[in-house]
Design goal:
The chain has 10 helices and 8 strands. The chain has helices at 12-21, 43-55, 66-69, 80-96, 114-133, 146-156, 167-172, 177-186, 213-223, 240-262, and strands spanning 2-4, 26-30, 60-62, 100-104, 137-141, 161-163, 193-196, 229-232. Helix 5 (114-133) packs across helix 6 (146-156), helix 6 (146-156) runs parallel beside helix 8 (177-186) and helix 9 (213-223) packs parallel to helix 10 (240-262). The chain starts with a strand and ends with a helix. A 6-stranded parallel β-sheet has the order 1-2-3-4-5-6. The chain is of the alpha/beta class. Helix 9 (213-223) links the parallel strand 7 and strand 8.
């Protein structure tokens, strides 16, 4: 089970402490910037992150700051400032031994027009080439449904690209996570690291509350048997105890999905 540093604390060391105490066995780090903490490209911050990675595995570096910049321009080309930011993040990811660079497509990076999707594909294509050269995967996440997500990925046309399934973001966009898993998984483009979030209280004290993302997780895992980790991504800034609850719910869900496979 993985925890997201940016949802716990802008202090990466504090986030690692909280994640370990809550039972997480992986930590996804954020590159920083725009109220998400200091930039990882600061040599002192990078050295601190390297120390964190010796205590808890860090498989993913997310660049959420790109949502503040915009991955593409309205006239259909990549935003050079965003590409430069991601290149700096990729260099940090190499130093950390991270296997996945996570690129989000929300807010100013939301690909809502054909031109923005073309510019997004342009940016991802550049970064995919660099990620592949470093032996890494480029993970792209947006609220697009499976058909639009696959069309975007195919326009990028690079084997280093994978698409992220985030239950909360898909449901907020009116999309079905199970269908996303089926269609994107069938295309071989689904990142094996699932994201689960549900702002509602996800447990009644005994098990997952019916109708929540946590309740649906066993079925989702059955549709994605290649999943290697689950990232819990609710907001833990003001409720660190919720992190332990979410980690426990996901561990239970993984056990349930395995039990169903064995029947």
């Amino acid at each position: 089970m993985a925890a997201p540093q940016w949802r716990i604390s802008t202090d990466r060391r504090e986030a690692a402490r909280v994640a370990l105490a809550a039972g997480a066995d992986q930590l996804h780090l954020d590159f920083g910037g725009a109220h998400r903490g200091p930039l990882l490209s600061d040599p002192r911050e990078l050295r601190a992150a390297e120390a964190i990675a010796r205590d808890i595995p860090v498989p993913v570096l997310a660049v959420n700051h790109v949502n503040d910049i915009g991955l593409a321009h309205e006239h259909g080309v990549a935003n050079p400032a965003a590409v430069a930011l991601l290149e700096r993040a990729l260099d940090c990811a190499r130093r950390l031994g991270v296997r996945v660079l996570h690129v989000p497509g929300f807010r100013r990076s939301l690909p809502v027009t054909d031109a923005l999707r073309a510019g997004t594909a342009d940016a991802l294509r550049v970064l995919c080439r660099q990620a592949a050269a470093a032996g890494m995967t480029l993970a792209y996440e947006s609220p697009l449904g499976p058909a639009d997500s696959l069309a975007l990925a195919r326009s990028v046309g690079h084997p280093a690209l994978r698409l992220v399934l985030d239950t909360g973001n898909l449901l907020d966009a009116g999309e079905d996570p199970l269908r996303f898993a089926e269609l994107v998984g069938a295309a071989g483009l689904l990142l094996p690291d699932l994201h689960v979030k549900d702002p509602a209280h996800a447990t009644d004290g005994v098990g997952p509350t019916p109708g929540t993302s946590f309740d649906a997780l066993p079925g989702l895992l059955l549709r994605h048997p290649g999943a290697r980790s689950v990232l819990v991504e609710n907001d833990y800034h003001h409720s660190p105890t919720r992190l332990r609850t979410d980690v426990t719910l996901c561990r239970t869900a993984v056990g349930l999905s395995h039990a169903k496979e064995e029947r």
